[in-house]
Amino acid sequence: MSLSTHVLDMASGRPARGMAIALWRDGMLLHRGETNEDGRCPALGADQSLARGVYQLQFHVADYFRAQGVTLADPPFLDIVSVDFGMGDEGHYHVPLLVSPFAYSTYRGS
């Protein structure tokens, strides 16, 4: 199985370049990286053998928006967005994130 993500900054209307992402399973860190200029993290899942199970993607949104010069409350409304999702026997999973400092949405993409 393979896994990908794509993060879009809905406040600016651009891909979220430089957002830190972490992939976890059963309390074990599998991958840590950041999004590229297109808001993608190509190495995500590439360095691990992904199997059927429950995973968690963590998106460090507050750090990203602060780096973009956005003034956030202390504490921020959204700090780390965690998406828990299951992977079955199908081949590819795509977990996109649409995010602003005050809202986010995700879905199973293609």
Kindly list the characteristics that best describe this protein.
single chain; 110 residues; mainly beta; four-stranded antiparallel beta sheet; 10 strands; 6% helix
What is the fold's blueprint, element by element?
Layout: E1 2-4, E2 7-9, E3 14-15, E4 20-25, E5 28-34, E6 53-60, H1 61-67, E7 80-87, E8 92-94, E9 97-100, E10 103-106
Parallel strand pairs: 1-8, 2-9
Antiparallel strand pairs: 2-3, 4-5, 4-6, 6-7, 9-10
Overall description:
- This protein has 110 residues and is mainly beta.
- The chain is 6% helix and 44% strand.
- The mean pLDDT is 94.
- The protein has 1 helix and 10 strands.
- It has one helix at 61-67; strands at residues 2-4, 7-9, 14-15, 20-25, 28-34, 53-60, 80-87, 92-94, 97-100, 103-106.
Short description:
The chain is 6% helix and 44% strand.
